Amino acid sequence: MLTKGMSRSEIEKELKGKGDFVQIDYLNRFIAQKPPLYEKKFAFMKLIEIYTSKKMFNDIAKIYNNLVLLALSSQERTENMIKETKAYIQGGRFDEADSVMRRAMDEVPIVKKADIYEDIKKFYKKQAEEYEKENKRNHAAKFYEKLLSMKISESEKDEVKAKLLSLYDQLGKFRESSALDRRR
Q: Tell me, what's the pLDDT at 11?
């Protein structure tokens, strides 16, 4: 069992050989003991590792939200918000992702807002392409639909529409395909 005041190596040693869900339980109990900030952040990072291996993206987003609250600098807070946004995107929770992205953009100067938006836009595109490669066409279509609702250039819109048309045809979504084709 993990106790407050343990070093990182002691925590690692205690967790070694345990199953993922036992590790999650130990780490959550440890965090509930209200350890010092650096120990708490370490425990959160260990949880992120486990959740990433299990593809539990919404739980990862919640942890990044906790790390935002623990952040000491505005840069660290913004970085954690961007990671939280990306985790929500991977989890398919676009509304939460948009909300967190807006909060992150409120934290930074005007010149960095465009960078954040561009980074998130690229992440949506990367996720859509990844789903396409995995033949998860329905997921890919949802990500491309989200991309179309964002502020993107005309050339990007044309590219996304072409990919969407192809996906709709493969999925048998002829109504959506014809509606998108008319808007072209």
A: 86
Distances (CA, A) of 11 to 27, 30, 148, 154: 9, 10, 45, 52
For residue 27, give every residue at least 6 positions away whose Cβ sits within 8 Å of its Cβ, in sequence order, or none: 2, 15, 43, 46, 47, 50
Spell out, as residue ranges, where the chain has pLDDT lower than 70: 181-184
* Percent of the chain whose pLDDT exceeds 70: 98
Closest CA to 94 of 116, 133, 75, 121: 121
pLDDT in tens, 131-175: 999 999 999 999 999 998 999 889 998 898 889 888 888 888 878
